[in-house]
Amino acid sequence: MKPKPKLDKFAIAATLQEIAALLELKGGKDRFKARAYQTGARVMAGMGDDLGAVIKENRLTSLRGIGDALASQIKQLYETGESSVLRGLKKDFPPGIIELSGVPGLSIAKIAALHEALGITSIAELKAAAEAGKIKSIKGFGAKTEQKLLETIASDGERKTKEQRLHLHRALAAAEQIRNYLATAGDKLEIEFAGSLRRWKETVGTIRVVAKTKQPAVLIKYFLRFPLIVQVEEQTRTSCIVRLAEDARVSLVAVSQAEFALALLTETGSQAHLAKLEKLVSNGSAKSKRGKPNTRTTVRASAPKTEAELYRRWGLQYIPPELREDEGELEAALAGKLPEDLLTLDDIQGMVHCHTTYSDGKHSVEEMARAAEAMGMKYITITDHSPTAFYAGGVTIDRLKRQWDEIAAVQETVKVKILRGTESDIIADGHLDYPDKILEQFDVIVASIHSRYKMDSAKMTKRIVTAMRQPVFKIWGHALGRLIQRRPPFECDVEKILDVIAESRAAIEVNGDPWRLDMEPRWLREARKRKIKFTISVDAHSTGALNNLKYGVAMARRGWVRKAEVLNTLSTKAFQKAVKPA
Ligand SMILES: [Zn+2]
Ligand SMILES: [Zn+2]
């Protein structure tokens, strides 16, 4: 018989999180241990396998990021509900230390004094005590400190709201953990992501989640027990805003069936889209079959079930979330001119821009091919780096020929068509990195810049224009070289380059690497105006990164890209023909 676990995976994640936070407070070399426990918490909260079975079969250390020490704590927590490490750490700190240490200027000694004098264990209690004037009487605090604390709490909250935007792929990972957790609250729930995450913005300020449930208040209470929550910022019967470890901010709105569609629409935004929508509706430009449609009460009275129904009621086409930025989508929807064939994930037939162990990829040609095949792809382009990218193991001509032999051999064993490609460097003078004689033998060429980013705009423009005018057909890889939150796009005259591409043998890639997401949607729209074609690329350096495809598709949708404008929606033969270098 299976022994009943004392704690489930979420409760274990919460404990590991608490240990991590306390280790972080200790500082010094304990910080490294803190990282490990943080990873452990994430692995636990996100794990799909049955934890009981993993423990029984002694497989914990086979999970990525779980070492022996961590495994033994997890096992302990699972079997006894306690952790010897946590017990030890708790002796060193006053209660509420994790949350309170987030207030700038509060030392551990001060937090201990606050606890001793007033029993304070949270920021909310601290704020209340300061507002009631109770802090100044504590030894070592005084009226000035009290005032300062109140200001700090207020401005810190504001700063966190404003500044900390989470990278899209981290926001998505956190949102998925939340969804997994909420799903354990019972059935008949519907959980949707909203906000900038649903609009696939590069970074996300607040992860917004909307849940449809018969018992909103119960669900909110359940959510507040989510183990990765470190602070509750706001709370009502049907909504809450919390902060997770690592500073993700999450808003959950729980509504009944009747309110769901409108709640999802308003929580999704953007602000600009909603404001314009409201104006259209109240001006009467958009029509309604049942009088004024825009107030919550009238909508609730007739309770549309989906967003599509809401838009339809207002006389508009359905507007996909990726388009809701007030960039002409409402006017188009009103006129019935919104494209109905926006690219979707299902349209993609081939994986473009994949690296292997021949350059800086983690997996072999065969592994990449099989993974693409398993995802239902008809073809895959193997595009390792060219020799100039020596730091990334650029492939010399000798090794290139070996790779071609290997591709031929692997092709015998798989169905997916493997295309011989390269990611050729655009060198400083704008030429590509292999001699023409070699370039012509590829099935596909991605041409990218990997060095000398800091040219002035005129030189950079000339470099790219030269590259695009090369006689071979090429796909412009991660066009403007940006790395989200790390490196801005490089300086060049984008419109001029697009003009050249429009009349050259070239296409532009929409790079799905979540750190790149290049080009930006506004440039994709400029490229569309010029009838330029695109590929949705994964720029995968491992089999796992083939999942970058969804980001590429989302970016393309944000740029209003339609299926017919994307080369890798074509069949294998048509794609090969379209991208053939010479
Ligand atoms: Zn590259
Ligand atoms: Zn690449």
Structural class: alpha/beta
Largest sheet: 7 strands, parallel, barrel
Strand content: 5-15%
Low-confidence stretches: 288-301
Got a strand count?
14
**Overall morphology:** globular
End-to-end distance, in Å? 67 Å
How many DSSP helices? 25
- Provide the spatial order of strands within the biggest beta sheet: 8-9-10-11-12-13-14
Q: Overall mean pLDDT score? A: 90
Rounded to an integer in angstroms, the radius of gyration calculated over CA atoms is: 27 Å
Bound molecules: zinc ion
Task: Provide an overview of this structure.
The protein has 582 residues and is an alpha/beta fold. Helices cover 45% and strands 13% of the residues. The protein has helices at residues 9-26, 30-46, 51-56, 68-80, 84-91, 97-100, 108-118, 123-131, 142-163, 168-183, 195-198, 216-223, 257-268, 271-283, 296-302, 307-313, 329-334, 365-374, 397-411, 436-439, 457-469, 494-502, 521-529, 549-558, 572-579, and strands at residues 166-167, 190-194, 203-204, 206-212, 229-235, 239-244, 249-255, 350-354, 379-385, 417-425, 444-448, 474-476, 506-511, 534-540. The strands form 3 sheets. The chain has a 7-stranded parallel beta barrel with strand order 8-9-10-11-12-13-14, surrounded by 5 helices. A 5-stranded mixed β-sheet has the order 2-4-7-6-5, sandwiched between helices. A two-stranded antiparallel sheet has the order 1-3. Helix 20 (436-439) links the parallel strand 10 (417-425) and strand 11. It binds zinc ion (2 copies). One zinc ion binds at residues 353, 355, 423, 539.
